Amino acid sequence: MGRLPATAHPLIRFSLGGGPMLGEIPVKPLTGRVAVMTGAFGDVGEASAEHLAGLGARVAVLDRSADRLDRLVSRIGRNGGTALAITVDVTDAAAVRSAAGRVAAELEDADLLINNTGVMLPVPSEEPVADRCKRQIDLNITGLTNVLGAFTPQLVRAAGERGVADLINASSIATRNGFPDFAVYSGTKTYVTRLSHHLRVELGTKNVRVSRLEQGVAETGPRCRVTGNGAFRWLRGSRKTMEWLTPQDVAETVGFIATLPPRATLQRITITPTRRPV
Question: What pTM did the predictor assign?
Answer without folding.
Answer: 0.84
